[in-house]
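I am hoping you can look over what I have pasted underneath with an eye to the fold:
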Amino acid sequence: MPVQKGKCLAISIQEHMAIDVCPGPIRPIRQISAYFPRLSPSNSMSEPLLPPSAGEAMGKGATGEGATGGLLSPLLHGATRGGGSWSLSAMSSMDTSVEMDSGDSDDSTSLGTLEFELLYERKSSSLHCTMLRAKGLKPMDFNGLADPYVKLHLLPGACKANKLKTKTVRNTLNPVWNEMLTYCGVTEEDMQRRTLRLSVCDEDKLTHNEFIGESRIALRRVKPDQSKHYNVCLERPPPLPSPTAMSAALRGISCYMREWEVEQQSSLEERGRLLLCLQFVPPASGGNGGAQRGGLLVGVRRCAHLAAMDVNGFSDPYVKTYLKPDVQKKSKHKTAVIKKTLNPEFNEEFFYEISFGDLSSRTLEVTVWDYDLGKSNDFIGGVSLSCHSQGETLQHWIDCLNNKGVKVERWHTTNQLPGSAPQD
């Protein structure tokens, strides 16, 4: 209906409310952090993102570009600026970064510092971790204090098999331990590929222990036979991105990577370490003119960081050796059982009378077991050495054959033997 000049257009209250309430499509109300977004370093923006000035907002409203868009949606307002320098895809990525970074955070809260020393002895293949002290830990109890202790893990690997733990210091935020924890059987290859994780936790008797902070040290930075001092700030584990800030494709990739990491972790899982000594004893002539036949001397020195098989968190380990093929099991030798330990020391030797030429077709199988009274023993792990082995086991076997009369010691990882069903 045309409106004559000089006459006011009469609008009912219902129409007036409809105009005010429904100005356009409904948009989500943004938080105040949306006006000050933290840009991702990967986004290259030619202009900084700023909320529109009052004059600019008034100008937009006067020209009919949507004044409410400038006030309620500053990001959308910036995206529609002339020149097309900001695309919608850039704005969507910016929204994602804002969503991932927004929310409550304890980054401003200090978790404390941890002071320790690391020493790797190449001759004994030992890693000594001396936990000195911590300062300014985050309070975890109602009294404003904590009961801190430190856990050590070698990554990657089975956490339970190589976990070391200090004593607990009660009611303090500045604990002093001065305690040395030693990893035995750490080879130079381990020092190049492994990482030491140091976790500070608060012990609670009635509830579960609480995590305070952690620090991770790449062992390749530790030089052999040189003590290195560290004083590091504790950090939180890296957070996972928010699922709502990820597209369907990214969520699928994330799930795939998580499953792949679990498979890699299980493939690298260790059940402990075993220190073996091999020596081929050459034949020698006796005093009465008879010749003594040579053979293979197998020394079982010790095990380190075995998997806990009993409910008390320990095992009752012993070691068995076979020289296969051996159908009648006449080559079986067994060490003594050492109770309630994950780091047994045996120092026992077994001799197999065999010629040097026959060793090329034989296989030395060494297995570690947990003794259980009244039921079948639990298999912990084992290692097989022969000319058909691979990696460290093959190198140990070749060094033994190439150095007759010389004792050759080497650490081995005890895993499930391929193609064997362990039965005691």
